[in-house]
Amino acid sequence: MMDKKMKIEDARESDISLLPPELLEEIIQRALSSSPTPIRDIRSLRRTCKKFHAICSSKRVGKYVSVEDWSMYWHNKEGYFGFVRFCAESENVNASFLLGLEEMVNLGRFDIALHHLQFAASQGHIVSKYFMGVFLLGDESSRSYAINLLNEKSLKREKITGHALIERIL
């Protein structure tokens, strides 16, 4: 009788959830980082079980998730930017860049925008450097810094042009 009860309880746990949390986290990170619909996928994984919910809510996963799920942006902008904020707080470079653009262009909160763009630029995000340089050119006190940003070898090496910039953003 006891063996039968143990088999029923064992059947409730999936084989994958028995893996060590670090390995599960790595699997989820890789799956979400290459997913075309990471927001939908992370929500689905969170609903699976408590273990997956905890892993999907960790900053280590948020750091590597792709944030270019534009379908979510068009259907639920508030939800999308909530997700992007979570990823930016997790030090996701692309999320910091997108959040910086949102804060600058749509919300007009320039100090917050520069904070996010500065983080992304410090991690080598070239388009963030470009946007910061262009934005800071208008301020007399930061003009020399802006010119230095725009003259960096990384921008010249990448040959950032208007067309190439749009392709990188999209």
Automatic annotation (TrEMBL):
Under the heading Pfam families, the entry gives: F-box, TPR_27
Residues of the F-box domain:
38-62
**Which part of the chain is the At2g35280-like TPR domain?**
73-154
Q: Which InterPro entries match?
A: At1g67623-like (IPR040338), At2g35280_TPR_dom (IPR057136), F-box-like_dom_sf (IPR036047), F-box_dom (IPR001810)
Which SUPFAM superfamilies does this UniProt record tie to the protein? F-box domain
* Source superkingdom: Eukaryota
Protein name listed in UniProt: F-box domain-containing protein
Organism (species): Dendrobium nobile (Orchid)
